[in-house]
Specification:
The complex is a heterodimer of chains A (about 575) and B (about 325).
Chain A lengths: L5 E6 L11 H8 L5 E7 L5 H13 L4 E6 L2 H14 L7 E5 L1 H5 L5 H19 L8 E4 L4 E4 L3 H12 L4 E4 L22 H14 L3 E4 L8 E3 L2 E8 L2 E7 L1 E4 L4 E2 L16 E3 H10 L12 E8 L14 H15 L4 E6 L9 H9 L3 E5 L8 E4 L8 E7 L4 E7 L1 E6 L1 E2 L4 H8 L26 E3 L9 H21 L1 E4 L4 E3 L9 H5 L5 E4 L4 E4 L9 H5 L5 E3 L4 H15 L6
Parallel strand pairs in A: 1-2, 1-3, 3-4, 6-7, 6-12, 7-8, 12-23, 14-21, 15-16, 15-21, 16-17
Antiparallel strand pairs in A: 5-24, 9-10, 10-11, 13-22, 18-19, 19-20, 25-28, 26-27
Chain B lengths: L8 E7 L5 H7 L5 H7 E5 L8 H5 L6 E7 L2 E3 H13 E7 L1 H5 L1 H4 L6 H11 L14 E4 L2 E4 L3 E6 L9 E3 L6 H12 L68 H4 L17 H11 L6 H9 L4 H5 L17 H6 L3
Parallel strand pairs in B: 1-2, 1-3, 3-5, 5-9
Antiparallel strand pairs in B: 4-8, 6-7
């Protein structure tokens, strides 16, 4: 076995780390650990000169392992792996110790923080000794894409891809394309017709030679991995085997059902309607009460089912602006009507939205504020002598007064929530759900349309409530990513995967059920489990499930983890007094 | 003792903290014992032949070719003899689960000396000891001073005390395996690298197990063997019975499973596993067929005696090694 020669680099991160950690002391003390050839500290390890220092040392001192102790590996692990590669070392002969997020930023005692930093670096040094070279792997990409959901998100993605010449299979579970956008009249903030926009897109989609549409269809199972997925779709009694390289999930969401909220009397009072029901009236051109009269008093109640711990804690994002849109449409249709906005907070971010708020507020609309957490308005039936059908009681927050508002029509701005089948879809495509049953993106900031499953993208409202421009932006972003892989023809896949040692595997099959990516199958002839490395994401579940130790999670082997723990504890004993 | 004949090897067998089963397992080779004595001089074997400590002390260093040491090291006598036999022996073999992994006596590491003495000398239902007399290492009588070995707080494996050349696992080891290893040693064949486990497979029990296995290992309730109507064919785990087979080295001929009892793990971990108890717990955790924390807890609660199930033979050799909380102070005093 070759002699282990480790280079250790402690980053100051300007004053970010050095302010709370004695970096020079850490470098000095850790230089004494077995295997460490050089140990240095430097102002900014991630800078070009910092990386150049590592590359120079690798060559000069014949280093074959490198430990950088700096920020989170989420930020710079790839940077340093690249540096190793540039120096001719395998990028996986590297380990990072996080002494910024895990030490300097969270502690206020310099002496103790320095000790903790030493323990973390010692753990990394111990671990890197067991690292092995891992080779890059690529798979070819089928140029077709499966788009699930035929709303504005799915249609946009399908058209973008199809226009570049790539085939698209568009799956829609209902009988019509268009989704929720086809159910609304005007869009905010510029009050353009939603129908005109979506209708043109639907027509183009339906006639596009590269788009194959499957309406009234759901996808039950998807097999394979990035570049090489397939699914069997039931169509008119026959089965079609589709093959595709990428998946766009654009399954949208549904409006909140306010029936359970007693204070709003939905279902009890015929003139209490939801925002989508009001859209229907707008589309029909008649805004009439249940009795067929023009409403004299219209109250628009915000945040129904949103921003409240008993329903949904999140903001549904589109309702405030939709409510302002309604006020404008009502003012045009019934100029004399009294229009009330009963709101909790007015959220008018986004291009043109604050302007819509300002212009609407100049149109004789009453804005009344209530406490969404503790004190919701209550809708009551009016007394026989009153001039209206309903009265709305509320504690108006700005004036501090308890008021009653007359109403002939109440519009509940219902929030948006995930479809009931979100969980099923997440299983089918192999992605995760967040606590609100919206699909999880890979990274909320750095990778908002990809998912942790390579080749699967989430766009539009199934990822979280958003307006039409944001939905279209996401759809186009995902298609750009997909087109990138199609153009390259192949894509690098995870090298940190699980591997079965067939000499040790006893065929107990414990691993098969636990794999969240269905990457493991049982080879009946050999009597062993087999990992399909193109599907495997290296999550390590099978490695911990395997009772015989036959499955090794590459880069997370028992030896690597145990020696990391030993390294941590060897220095932590000194921390015992702390 | 027979006179040393030419080409005969010198064999010693000793016991530490053991039940005696390992020594009996050597007798279990039946008529093959004649082959053993034909090839080897038994220079020390207290269970069968009369020797004194001084007989061993008087031997030159490395005089014994092979010593089979069974039993764990739990008192000063065990430790003294382990050191002595190491000095006198060329090939020291840890024989059986106790010597190899700590074995059943090793379960005492979940307790400590104080608790054990209290239970044994005071609180057992059959004990009458109002003066609370406990064993002393030295006691003066008219005739002089008597001594007893010191009972340690900690049970150790043989290789935690002295350098060990080979391990033969099992509680007790299969007699056939012993004969194979013995024959290999006397034949002068090239021996495997130092530290190897002999007389066992690299693969786990499941590899030899005739029961039908499938991927259907999702468990909603763990059961003890008497709580199921075993069909004699299906994998024990799939019937909800914890079987240590997957995390246990094969080679015993799946004796327990052939007897319709789940494997208890006496052969220790396969080469690829360092801590069989941890590995098996990890595996068991992944096959629990529940998602809600309370429901998962309920399934886990259905495991009777988890320590004795997962670590029946391997506490001292495991990562946890012993219960520290109840014995921190005692451990410091103990000779470790």
């Amino acid at each position: 076995m070759e002699e282990i020669r480790i280079g250790v680099y402690i980053c100051w991160c300007g004053t970010n780390i050095s302010r709370m950690v004695d970096v020079e002391d850490v470098a000095r003390e850790l230089s004494e650990m077995p295997g460490v050839v050089i140990s240095k500290d430097y102002k900014y390890m991630c800078s070009d000169p910092g990386q150049a220092l590592i590359i120079k040392d690798i060559k000069e001192h014949k280093l074959n392992r490198v430990v950088v102790s700096a920020c989170s590996p989420r930020i710079h692990e790839l940077t340093f792996r690249k540096a190793l590669e540039n120096a001719g070392l395998n990028p996986y002969m590297f380990q990072m110790a996080n002494i910024r997020e895990q030490v300097s930023w969270v502690h206020d005692d310099r002496e103790k923080a320095t000790k903790k930093a030493k323990a973390l670096v010692a753990a990394a040094i111990n671990r890197v000794k067991w690292h092995e070279s891992l080779d890059k792997r690529t798979v070819s990409i089928n140029p077709s894409t499966l788009v699930i959901g035929g709303g504005i998100a799915g249609i946009t993605a399908a058209l973008e891809l199809a226009d570049t010449g790539s085939p698209v299979y568009l799956i829609e579970k209902t009988t019509e394309l268009g989704g929720n956008m086809a159910k609304i009249d005007l869009t905010f903030p510029y009050l353009n017709s939603a129908r005109q926009i979506i209708q043109e897109k639907i027509e183009r989609t339906e006639h596009h030679p590269n788009i194959h549409i499957f309406k009234n269809t759901v996808v039950d199972e998807i097999f394979g991995y990035i570049g090489n997925f397939n699914s069997i779709i039931g169509q008119n009694g026959s089965e079609i085997d589709l093959k595709f390289g990428n998946i766009v999930v654009a399954t949208g969401l549904k409006p909140f059902d306010p029936s359970g909220l007693e204070n709003y009397g939905y279902g009890k009072f015929p003139d209490v309607i939801t925002s989508l029901e009001f859209e229907k009236k707008l589309l029909s051109g008649n805004i009439l009460t249940n009795e067929g009269k023009d409403p004299e008093n219209v109250v628009i109640i915000h945040c129904v089912g949103s921003r409240n711990r008993s329903e949904h804690e999140y903001c549904s994002r589109t309702c405030c602006m939709t409510a302002l849109k309604y006020a404008n449409q009502l003012r045009s249709a019934i100029p004399d009507a009294n229009i009330y906005q009963a709101y909790a907070d007015m959220r008018a971010f986004g291009k043109g939205c604050e302007e819509l708020y300002t212009s609407t507020s100049r149109k004789g609309i009453m804005f009344l504020m209530f406490d969404q957490q503790n004190d919701l308005p209550v809708i009551k039936k009016a007394e026989p002598g009153d001039s209206c059908n309903m009265l709305i009681e509320m504690n108006e927050k700005l004036s501090g007064e308890k008021i009653e508002i007359p109403a002939d029509m109440v519009i509940l701005m219902v929030g948006l929530e995930a479809h009931e089948d979100a969980k099923k879809i997440s299983h089918t495509v192999g992605i995760s759900l967040d606590g609100n049953s919206f699909f999880m993106e890979k990274h909320p900031k750095l990778d908002p349309v990809a998912t942790t499953t390579s080749g699967v993208y989430v766009v539009g409202n199934c990822q979280a409530p958003k307006d039409i421009p944001d939905t279209i932006t996401q759809a186009k972003a995902a298609t750009a990513r997909i087109m990138g892989t199609i153009k390259q023809g192949e894509v690098e896949v995870e090298v940190i995967t699980a591997v079965v040692n067939e000499d040790i595997c006893c065929g107990c099959q414990t691993c098969i059920q636990v794999c969240p990516y269905t990457a493991i199958t049982y080879d009946v002839v050999k009597g062993v489990s087999v990992v399909n490395e193109a599907i495997c994401k290296g999550c390590g579940t099978c490695g911990s499930a395997c009772p015989t130790g036959a499955i090794r999670s590459r880069h997370f082997t028992d030896n690597q983890i145990l020696s990391q723990i030993k390294g941590l504890l060897s220095k932590s004993l000194e921390l015992k007094e702390v | 003792m027979a006179k040393k004949e030419k080409n005969k090897i010198k064999l010693a067998i000793y016991w530490g903290a053991a039940c005696g089963g390992c020594c009996v397992s050597i007798l279990d080779v039946h008529e093959k014992l004649f082959d053993i004595v034909a090839a080897a001089d038994l220079v020390f074997w207290p269970i069968a032949l009369d020797f004194k400590y001084k007989d061993v002390e008087n031997m030159p260093d490395k005089d014994i070719d092979v010593t089979l040491f069974n039993g764990a090291v739990r008192n000063s006598e065990n430790e003294h003899m382990a050191n002595l036999l190491r000095e006198k022996t060329k090939i020291l073999v840890a024989y059986g689960s106790c010597s190899h992994l700590g074995g059943i006596p090793g379960l005492a590491n979940f307790s400590n000396r104080e608790e054990i003495f209290k239970r044994v000398y005071e609180t057992t239902e059959s004990t009458v000891n109002p003066e609370k007399i406990t064993p002393q290492t030295k006691y003066k009588v008219a005739e002089g001073e008597l001594s007893l070995p010191e009972f340690y707080n900690d049970v150790r494996t043989l290789d935690q005390v002295v350098d060990v050349d080979y391990f033969i696992p099992g509680c007790p080891p299969q007699s056939e395996r012993l004969m194979e290893v013995f024959t290999a040693i006397v034949s002068g064949a090239e021996l495997p690298p130092k530290g190897s486990v002999l007389g066992a497979l690299d693969k786990s029990q499941c590899d030899e197990c005739p029961r039908e296995k499938s991927e259907n290992k999702l468990i909603k309730e763990f059961k003890r063997p008497f709580e199921i109507e075993d069909d004699g064919k299906t994998c024990f785990l799939e019937q909800g019975v914890i079987c240590m087979g997957p995390a246990t080295r094969g080679g015993c001929g799946v004796r327990c499973i052939e007897g319709n009892a789940p494997c208890r793990g006496c052969y220790g971990p396969p080469t690829s596993v360092s801590d069989p108890g941890a590995k098996m717990m990890s595996a068991i955790a992944t096959i629990i067929d529940e998602n809600e924390p309370e429901a998962i807890e309920k399934v886990i609660d259905s495991i009777e005696d988890p320590a004795g199930t997962f670590y029946r033979f391997s506490v001292p050799s495991s990562i946890i090694r012993r219960n520290i909380e109840t014995s921190e102070k005692k451990a410091e005093q103990a000779v470790v």
